[in-house]
Amino acid sequence: MGDEIQEASSAVSRATTASFSKWVKEDFDREDFNPDHLAAVPGNAQLSDELRLWPATRKRVKTLVRQGVGVDQRRDLWLTVSGGLQFSKVSGSLYTETLQDSFGNTVREDLPCPRPFLPASGCQWWQLSAAGQAAGCRILVAIERNHPDISHCPDLQRLAAVLLHVIDDETTCFNILSALLQSDHSGAANGAVPSSHPVFLDQSQTAVIDTEACLGRLARKKAKHSYRWLQETQGASESVMATDDEMVRVMGDWLSWVFAWLPLTTVIRVVDCFLIEGKKVLYRVALAMMKLTYRNMDVSDGRRNAKRPGLPEVKRHSRSLASAVLLQCAFKIRSLSRRLIQQCQASGRTAPTLPRSRVESRAEPSDFVSAAGTTETAVVTDNKQWTRMWQWLPARYQIMRPRRVFCTEEDGYSLSTLYERCADEEPLLMLVRSTAKEVFGAFLSSSLKNRLHGTKGFSYFGSGETFLFSLLPRANCYQWSGLSGGGGGDVEKGSADYFIAGDTKCIAIGGGDGYGLWLDAGLDNGTSTRNTTFTNPPLVSSDDGSFRVAAIEVFALDGE
């Protein structure tokens, strides 16, 4: 009996060890990453047989993987279904050759994550050791060298980190990621038509924005009750529900729900399915997180308690979700097709789609920082805020690069200096931070020199592309009220067109029964009130709309 117990214990130990790689740090957090839970998932001998016939057995493999993957099968599964095995046969020693060509025989251990692959919230390494993180950066650098066309792919860093928890060999991870990128780029693998081909990784800013906006629209259709509950918790007050447009922005960071809120053990099981079925799996999981949290809420007076915090509650509950329960709920969501996802993505586009060659040259959020010559700017330091603001720009300006032309910390608090620094620039992006730590601003479609070309005094100029926005404490964009909701740039008759005005005493954006944003000559004080041009609420929280300025920055946009 003692020998049987020892043998069983040794078997569990071997299975547990096989479920993670050498890159996992010794003191890893077992609440986040529990190899025992992975080892407890029974393998299926049939899965190994079906993988030998891949991709002809795709449907059968998908069914088996949803049921669970044994720890000794995961590496072969990932390598096969991703296309990494086939890629390795063609690429040979591409990974080592790329690093040698770039760095010679000695590769730095402190390579940073390449900017196109950097998530807005920073790199996420989970339980990888310092050596594992360095390996991840080497892999990403090699991919960047071989894919200079990819302008923005933040999920690649997270996926690389997940792979390294299971796979020791850097080349294998490189081949898996390269195969996924190649598959997405070709649009169809193994003869599949593009509409039926799984999509894995967004590779441009436009694609990332479409993905961010999609979950809110899907939730309205596929998770109605939990979506309405979140609307109640995200409103400006207990009596006001968040609008659908506000929910699209609130839920924009939904991929972080999957990658940051779930335990890594669960994320690994999600990746098992993702590598076969594509990004659709991630939508399913995010919707399931909402639905399961809503079901878990206490029932009071016949309805869920809307006073409980919405997204924080989803985060808290998701940490304790069993992976089997989550995946079962995710795959019970009916009729979540790729066509529906594409429709939800397209419904949020108010501007024509740019050709691929131009879309991929869009400026990235971190370009604001580098253009300013520092790792932090005076007003905004969060890449998520930059990304949100950038998507509000007219499409033709999103391919331009930002260049800071005025900053109060460097140029002083003077409106005349602001006019001087911005005189020859068009368009302009103005950012303001108040002493109450509110962040807001305006996109100015016309040069500030136009203030001199009108009638004497305080006269308005500019076009309907001008808009106001707020970033903190809540992100919102306020377009010209003259733009009708039907799309296509239609203009409502009789709309106020008080876009921009300025003289030596002040500058104002948005007028008519108030100023959307007004700043005095000393750039010390300002006001923000509702107005007929943008119909925005005050951008600040004070009762009278007044605020004290902490910092102002103005950016010009340069073409390629």
Unreliable residue runs: 1-15, 186-195, 299-306, 350-375, 484-494
Mean pLDDT across residues:
82
Output the radius of gyration: 26 Å
Derived structural class = alpha+beta
Topology:
Elements: H1 2-18, H2 35-40, H3 45-51, H4 58-67, H5 74-81, H6 84-91, H7 94-103, H8 130-146, H9 155-166, H10 170-186, H11 205-222, H12 224-234, H13 244-250, H14 254-261, H15 264-277, H16 280-296, E1 299-300, E2 303-304, H17 310-318, H18 323-332, H19 338-346, H20 356-359, H21 365-371, H22 383-391, E3 401-407, H23 408-411, H24 415-421, E4 428-434, E5 439-444, E6 460-461, E7 467-472, E8 476-478, E9 500-502, E10 506-509, E11 517-520, E12 525-527, E13 546-558
Antiparallel strand pairs: 1-2, 3-13, 4-5, 4-13, 5-7, 6-9, 7-8, 9-10, 10-11, 11-12, 12-13
What are the key terms here?
eleven-stranded antiparallel β-sheet, 560 residues, two-stranded antiparallel ribbon, 24 helices, alpha+beta
Would you summarize the structure shown here?
The protein is an alpha+beta fold. The protein has helices spanning 2-18, 35-40, 45-51, 58-67, 74-81, 84-91, 94-103, 130-146, 155-166, 170-186, 205-222, 224-234, 244-250, 254-261, 264-277, 280-296, 310-318, 323-332, 338-346, 356-359, 365-371, 383-391, 408-411, 415-421, and strands spanning 299-300, 303-304, 401-407, 428-434, 439-444, 460-461, 467-472, 476-478, 500-502, 506-509, 517-520, 525-527, 546-558.
Model description:
With 560 residues, the chain is an alpha+beta fold. It is built from 24 helices and 13 strands. The chain has helices at residues 2-18, 35-40, 45-51, 58-67, 74-81, 84-91, 94-103, 130-146, 155-166, 170-186, 205-222, 224-234, 244-250, 254-261, 264-277, 280-296, 310-318, 323-332, 338-346, 356-359, 365-371, 383-391, 408-411, 415-421, and strands at 299-300, 303-304, 401-407, 428-434, 439-444, 460-461, 467-472, 476-478, 500-502, 506-509, 517-520, 525-527, 546-558. Strands 3, 4, 5, 6, 7, 8, 9, 10, 11, 12 and 13 form an eleven-stranded antiparallel sheet that branches. Strands 1-2 form a two-stranded antiparallel sheet. A hairpin with a 3-residue loop joins strand 9 and strand 10 (506-509). Helix 3 packs antiparallel against helix 4 and helix 4 (58-67) packs antiparallel against helix 15. The longest helix has 18 residues, at 205-222. The termini are far apart. Residues 1-15, 186-195, 299-306, 350-375 and 484-494 have low confidence and may be disordered.
